[in-house]
Every structure is written in structure tokens, then in C-alpha cells.
Amino acid sequence: MKQFLVTGGAGFIGSALVRFLIDHTEHQVVVVDKLTYAGNLASLAPVQHNPRFAFEQVDIGDRAGLDRVLAQYQPDCIMHLAAESHVDRSIDGPMAFIETNIVGTYQLLEAARHYWNGMADARKQQFILHHISTDEVFGDLHGTDDFFTETTPYAPSSPYSASKASSDHLVRAWMRTYGLPIIVTNCSNNYGPYHFPEKLIPLTIINALAGKPLPVYGNGSQIRDWLYVEDHARALYTVVSSGKSGETYNIGGHNERRNLEVVETLCDLLDELAPQQRAAGLTRYRDLITFVTDRPGHDLRYAIDAGKIARELGWTPQETFESGIRKTVEWYLANPEWWQSILNGSYRAERLGLTTSR
């Protein structure tokens, strides 16, 4: 049994990872999360009473708080997912992305380095810091047959992707300079249950059910590789368990789709699964699609070459886009209380009764 420390564990990908670790392993897990607007304790409700789970409301920019948590829980590995991650928000207010993704990662690296240096040799050799990043650090692809590999040069386009690229460089520098054992993974677009409603797929589902316009940037021709979040959680555990220190692994879903195609697929699934919830006078959900002005610096295509993780670690996604997107729509239809609590703001009040330690 190992002790895992997961930063950002109340977020979308982080909570999926935590649920996986509790449900499918025997390890202990402590979540460190600042609980910004995107942190939601309800996403951890399925595991919050498990004796192997603990939660600490700590900002990764708080060095004293990190030192305390590391000393108290003595983790064998740190999985770093805490980040500001919404491109549109980074365009409107980039400072939060600099503070969390760059300065926060620096504070975590320094806390981890101090903690690691104080370990006994046997544990020190087993320790790893796994930094979870994004394919957006590579910019966009111009050819239809090109893919991001682990050696693709960085060319970030937005304040968000630039801040994540910076954090990747910091992590690798801390290994090169100080010897801190690290692994980096870069993933494609995630989707699935517990996805915060500002992102494309949950926003489309929720707006459609409310009879609201379904905004699509430009003409919707932007292409993304979609990765089901539970496949990603399994990949992250595979990497931290079997990957090599100093290596980078790309994680993709092998599911390229145009944004417009994603929205149309969601509309068709809702027509099948929730026809009775269509607004009065609406004959099909596709009629709600509305094209809006494209955002600045919008990358056209992302696509991951996930061959390395398949060859070396044996991971491949289990979900196709068709199976994963159906599961996602079914989950949102079955769990309206989760996303409605976000829309009305009541999810923030649930933090008051939180038990913070194991």
C-alpha cells in the first residue's frame, strides 16, 4: 500500500483519478485542493467516507501548507493536477493562470524537493512526482496526418497553454538540476461525468435541456482528440506505477472529431434519450446550434500519438467516442442535482461541513 497525494483532486480529471484509486487499488489517497470555482466536493462524494481517503483544503501556492501536508501524510508519490484550465478564462484574466500553473507549480516543486531530500534512501528511490499536462502546449497541427509526439516542439497559443508549457519546463528543470524524480504526461481533451459545465460537452448538454442556444465557435471546424476521463485516470495510474522517471508519455483517445460534429452528436443522443425534455416548439435539439465569433488564437487541430504509452506500458483507451459520449449524456441525465448545484451556486456551501483529515 502506498500513499498518493493528488493536487487538484476535487476537479474534473483529479476527482476521476481519486475515485479510480480508491475503487480499484488498495492505496491511500490524500487530496490537496484550493477549492476554486471548479473544485467540487460532490465529485468526491462516492469515496469521501472511505478510510483510505483524506482531504486537505490547501492552495498549492501556500508553501507552509504544502510542507505541513507532506510531513503529515508522508506520500510515496505526488500526482500534480491542480491547475487553472479554461482557455476562455485565461484570455479574459491570465493572472490567475500565471499564479496557479506557474508559481503554484514552483511552490509544489520546492516543497516536494525539500520533502524528498529528507527521505530515507530506500523510500527516496521509490518516490515520483507525476506532472499532468495538456496537448495544448504543442500549439496546433496544420496537416491532416500529423500528430503530437513526446518530442514535438512547444508552441503554445493561449495564456492557458503558455502557463502549462511553463510548468512542464519547470518540472523537467527540477529533475535536471536537482535530481527530483519526475514523470510528465500530456493528454488530449477529456470528457465524461463530473465535467464542469463551462466546458463544451457539458455546456452543450445542459443548454440543450434548458432550450438555450448551443454556441459553436466560428464554423465548428476545430478538431480535437477526445479522451474519456476514466480511461485517462487508468492511464495516469499506469504511468505512475510502471513509467520510468524522467520520461514523458502522451495520452490520447484516438477519437478525432470536429467541434460541430461533437455538438451534433450530443443533440442526436438527447433526441434519442430525452425527447420529452425538449423545449416547447422544438422538434430537434440541433435547431439550437448557434455559430458565434471565434475566440482569439483558436488552434485548429490537436491530435495525440499515444503509441509510446501503448508500446511501453500496455495502455490503450477502452472507450470509443461513441460509447464514451453516450455514457456521458446518460450520466448528465441521471445526475441533474450535481450540475444544478453548480448552476445555482449551492455546491460552494457544501464545503462548510468538510472533514479535512484522515
Automatic annotation (TrEMBL):
Transmembrane segments: none annotated. Pfam families: GDP_Man_Dehyd. InterPro entries: dTDP_Gluc_deHydtase, NAD(P)-bd_dom, NAD(P)-bd_dom_sf. Its EC number is 4.2.1.46. One of its GO terms (biological process) is nucleotide-sugar metabolic process. Residues 5-328 form the NAD(P)-binding domain. Its cofactor is NAD(+). Keywords: Lyase, NAD. It catalyses: dTDP-alpha-D-glucose = dTDP-4-dehydro-6-deoxy-alpha-D-glucose + H2O. One of its GO terms (molecular function) is dTDP-glucose 4,6-dehydratase activity. PANTHER family: DTDP-D-GLUCOSE 4,6-DEHYDRATASE-RELATED (PTHR43000). Belongs to the NAD(P)-dependent epimerase/dehydratase family. dTDP-glucose dehydratase subfamily. This is dTDP-glucose 4,6-dehydratase. It comes from Pantoea wallisii.
